[in-house]
Amino acid sequence: MFVALERLINLExxxxxxxxxxxxxxxxxxxxxxxxxxxxxxxxxxxxxxxxTLDGAVLRCARHGIAFDLATxxxxxxxxxxxxxxxxAYDGDRIGLDL
Length: 99
Ligand code: FES
What we know:
Blueprint: E1 2-7, E2 16-21, E3 24-31, E4 34-39, E5 53-55, E6 58-60, E7 67-69, E8 85-86, E9 89-91, E10 94-98
Antiparallel strand pairs: 1-10, 2-3, 3-4, 4-8, 5-6, 6-7, 9-10
The protein binds FE2/S2 (inorganic) cluster.
């Protein structure tokens, strides 16, 4: 089942959208024209990631400062699990995910 999150026309660099889908907090961001969907929860200790800072394609969590490479989801400068990313799906002029 396709769950729409956003209209494609609204996706531009710098976009950040928060969504709740089946009890999961999700974060959709656009970097270098690439939409990336992940759980809005830092894999280190669970801080919300939507308050993190972006430097290119690196997202730094606001709580303890661990940086994650958005291309791979892996932490850049620490040992902790990678970001939990979700596959995106498309339907007409919408982006979302398949459940
Ligand atoms: S909770 Fe994100 S770096 Fe610790």
